[in-house]
Prior knowledge:
Layout: H1 2-15, H2 22-33, H3 40-47, H4 56-68, E1 73-75, E2 83-85, E3 92-96, E4 102-105, H5 111-121, E5 131-134, H6 137-144
Parallel strand pairs: 3-5
Antiparallel strand pairs: 1-2, 3-4
Helix pairs in contact: 1-2, 2-3, 2-4, 3-4
This protein binds zinc ion (2 copies).
Subcellular location: Cytoplasm
Protein name: Peroxide operon regulator
Cofactor: Zn(2+); Mn(2+); Fe(2+)
Amino acid sequence: MSEERMQKALATLKSSGVRITPQRHAVLEYLMHSMNHPTADEIYKALEGKFPNMSVATVYNNLRVFLDIGLVRELTYGDSSSRFDCNTTEHYHVICNSCGKIVDFHYPALDEVEQLAEQVTGFNVSHHRMEVYGTCTDCQENKSH
Ligand SMILES: [Zn+2]
Ligand SMILES: [Zn+2]
């Protein structure tokens, strides 16, 4: 299934007139195959062996290109390092308090909250964010040892 998403993403790049360099391909592939919302730094570390000339800036530039055409989403959680999510369908995140891992989960979008916010405040609501926090299964196991 990730192969299909990869082909779709490549088609989107092509139709947006974005040149597909080997590095760009590798960054995209890493994002598509890792479901763990990596930071630019993590992507860089995973690929630097394959592309010795690549810099973190290159990774960032590629991520910007993907962001611009809507292939990825940027998740900022108040720290300096943004995480990147190649799952652009509506979903929520549960975040581990211990290791910072972010896991997708699906729940019907809370449209009523947005509607109520509009009614109560008169805002023209664009979107909302909801995050759930806890301890992931790995960290639960580590604690019990
Ligand atoms: Zn954890
Ligand atoms: Zn996600």
